[in-house]
Amino acid sequence: MKTLTHFPYKHVLVLGLAKSGEAAARLLHQSGVQVRINDQKPFTENPKAQSLQELGMEVITGGHPPSVLDDIEYVVKNPGIPYSNPIVDEALKRRIPVVTEVELAYMLHEGNLVGITGSNGKTTTTTLVYEMLKASQSPAALAGNIGNVSCEVAQDTTNEETMVLELSSFQLLGTETFRPHVGIFLNLYEAHLDYHGTMDDYGQAKAKLFANQSEQDYLIYNQDQEDVVNLIQHASSVLVPFSKQERLIEEGIWIDDSHLYYKDRSIIPLQNIKLAGQHNLENIMASVGAALLSGGTISGIRQVLQTFTGVKHRMQFVKEVNKRRFYNDSKATNILATKNALEAFSSPTILLAGGLDRGNDLEDLTPYLKHVKAMVLFGETATKFEQLAKDNGIDTHIMVDNVKQAAEEAYHLSAPGDVILLSPACASWDQYRTFEERGDMFMDAVHTLK
């Protein structure tokens, strides 16, 4: 297991535990660094903090006193902790570097690295690249925002392996030297403004994906989106565009009515691609480019595209019950993702939606509600969705306490041939720890229906 061999800091604060904080603390401790841990949860209710203290690390829990920064040279923070946090703000005022554990992963892994970001499609694209490399017999490791802590995975990788990382804006904002050999910038839509404040700041966080790239690296980007094109103008890497609208025969990945191409080479007929949804074509194009630039083969790429149907919690077919089809799209934590989900169906649909209220306007969903016959709503935004239903003439709308009840009520409202779609358009944190927990509850409820 690898450790940080040339780490220049002797005393590090790990701010916030959860999975990433615990992994970072263990790595730093194993690397001979003096580690101080600060976590909001009280010590008696904090088994992670108890375990780390037993290893000899200093642990401060139950609050964030300013003294946690005494003698500290470097801060590794949980990505979800905002920069308005008093400890983070004070650290920056003192010119103490504040990073996320992705930066530590980059320090550890010396092989090829593919970094994938965007407002939507990250998980699907990351999984596709990883599966394409595996099918090509090219060693690969999967990590990042997809659920596997990057610095933990990096400890076990070899230099022959390609690390494929899903990267959120929260993670990227906390990087300094991070530099993927191949970067993918999928798209940029309004999201996480409660964290970043403005779209410009959100875009700049995403742009850290390629901030340190050189002419020896590659940046695959969405040429069809003006905001992305504007942001990549100053990239130093080799630019590889993908487009559903233009024929990029000289420089990129593109489609026509029948095939997907890499430059002038046909990769696969569109009719042979198993993954449904027009929006997924962008994810597929980007993944094809990254796989080819990272040692993937045409045969391996084709094998995956002919069999891959999607990832858990993203437009996941759960079950058919008495001719009703249930889909779990719990990973739809913003409006664009739910638009894409609704657009994929033409059957009468019962939409299950709601969650954390970030102040977003739901009216953008209006053009996509034409097949929605009923809504079952939950969470902080339930009343907003109820108004959306009323404004669009959807007379059947019910508010429930959780997604288990939502699945049951939707079934009672449905008829044979209907689609019952969990696509919340909101983050889960008002009721659930993660979107995975929300999706699992929904699927458990579906499997108990008779």
UniProtKB/TrEMBL annotation:
| InterPro entries the UniProt entry points to | Mur-like_cat_sf, Mur_ligase_C, Mur_ligase_C_dom_sf, Mur_ligase_cen, MurD
What pathway or pathways are given for this protein in its record? Cell wall biogenesis; peptidoglycan biosynthesis
Q: Does the record bear Cytoplasm in its keywords?
A: yes
User: Record's Gene3D superfamilies?
Assistant: Mur ligase, C-terminal domain, Mur-like, catalytic domain, NAD(P)-binding Rossmann-like Domain
EC numbers, comma separated: 6.3.2.9
Asked whether the UniProt record includes Kinase among its keywords, one would answer no
Q: Which reaction does it catalyse?
A: UDP-N-acetyl-alpha-D-muramoyl-L-alanine + D-glutamate + ATP = UDP-N-acetyl-alpha-D-muramoyl-L-alanyl-D-glutamate + ADP + phosphate + H(+)
Judged by the first EC level, this protein's enzyme class is: ligase
Any transmembrane segments, and where?
Answer: none
Give residue ranges for domain Mur ligase central.
Answer: 116-291
Extract the GO molecular function terms from the UniProt entry.
UDP-N-acetylmuramoylalanine-D-glutamate ligase activity
Q: Which residues bind ATP?
A: 118-124
- Please provide the record's keywords in A-Z order: ATP-binding, Cell cycle, Cell division, Cell shape, Cell wall biogenesis/degradation, Cytoplasm, Ligase, Nucleotide-binding, Peptidoglycan synthesis
The record's subcellular locations are: Cytoplasm
Tell me where in this chain the Mur ligase C-terminal domain is found: 313-426
- Location (main, coarse): cytoplasm
Stated role: Cell wall formation. Catalyzes the addition of glutamate to the nucleotide precursor UDP-N-acetylmuramoyl-L-alanine (UMA).
Q: Which family does it belong to?
A: Belongs to the MurCDEF family.
What protein does this entry describe?
UDP-N-acetylmuramoylalanine--D-glutamate ligase
User: What gene is this protein translated from?
Assistant: murD
